[in-house]
Amino acid sequence: MTDSSRPRPASDDFTDWTASDAAAWIAVPAEDDDKYSRGVLGVVTGSSSYPGAAVLGVEAALHTGVGMLRYLGPTRAADFVLHRRPEAVTSAGRVQAWLLGSGVDPDHLDDETRDGFETAVASGLPLVLDAGALGLRERATGPVVLTPHLRELARATGRSLEEVTADPAGAAVRTAERWGCTVLVKGHRTLVAGPDGTRLAASSAPSWLATAGAGDALGGVLGALVATHSEAALHEAGTLARLAATAAVVHGLAAERASGGGPLTVLGLVDAVPATIAGLLRGA
Length: 284
Prior knowledge:
This protein has helices at residues 19-23, 51-64, 75-84, 111-121, 150-157, 161-166, 168-179, 214-228, 230-235, 239-259, 266-282, and strands at residues 15-16, 40-44, 68-71, 97-100, 127-129, 144-146, 182-185, 190-193, 199-202. It is of the alpha/beta class. The chain has a single domain (14-282), classed as Ribokinase (UDP-N-acetylmuramoyl-L-alanine:D-glutamate ligase, 3-Layer(aba) Sandwich). Strand 4 (97-100), helix 4 (111-121) and strand 5 (127-129) form a beta-alpha-beta unit.
C-alpha cells in the first residue's frame, strides 16, 4: 500500500483548539447580569467514600465562573463542600446545566445521589457526565457530553484498554457516533468528538497533570462553561464540543501556571483558573 492510499489516522481529522479559540467561549458578565442570568450549575458528585471529588469539582466550577452552584450530593460530601465553599447552595431549584458522577460508584448509590441523577436526566438540560454517571447517557433527555479517561472509555464501550489506548481518536469518534453524545477523552492530548462531526484537540496540559483529582476539576470547569452557555448547548450543534475543548484548554493552562515546571496539586490548579481565564480574555 502506498502512502497516498494508506488510510489516514483518525487523529488527523482533529483540529487543534487554541487559546484564542477558547477565549471566545468564556462568558463575561454584563452590567445587568445577576446570579441567575450568569448560569446556575447543578452538581451531583462525590460520595461518602470520595467526598473530595465533590469539593474539587465545586471549587473548579466556582473559580471558572457561574452565578450560582447547587450541590445535591450525599450529606458527608455536602458538609465538606459547604465547609470549603459556603456560597454553594444545597437545596433543589432552578439550574441551567448539570455535572454528574465524579467520585461516584454507580453500583452503590446513596439516596441523595440517586434522586439527583433522576432529576437531572429528566430535566432536558445539558449534562456533563463523568465516571459513575457515564451510563446515564441512555436515559438523558437533553444533550450530553461524556468525560471518560481511557480506562473508563474501554469499560463503557466494551473494548479492551489496549485497543482504546492504541487509537484514542478513533475510539472517541466511534463512541460519539454510536451514542449520539459529545465525547471528551482525557489525556496529555485531550480529544473531543461531537456527534455532528466536530473534531477538536487540546494540547495545553503539562505532564505533571497526571494526578488524582485532575479529572474532577476538569468536570467542574466544563460544567461551569456549559451552565453559562446553556441555551447554545441546547440548540446549536457543536456547542458542547467547543465548550469541552475550551474546558480542556483552561484546565491545561491553569495546570501549567500552577506547576511552573514542577509538581502541582489540584487545588493549586483550581486557584490558577481565574488568572488563566483573565489571560485568555486579554489575549495573553
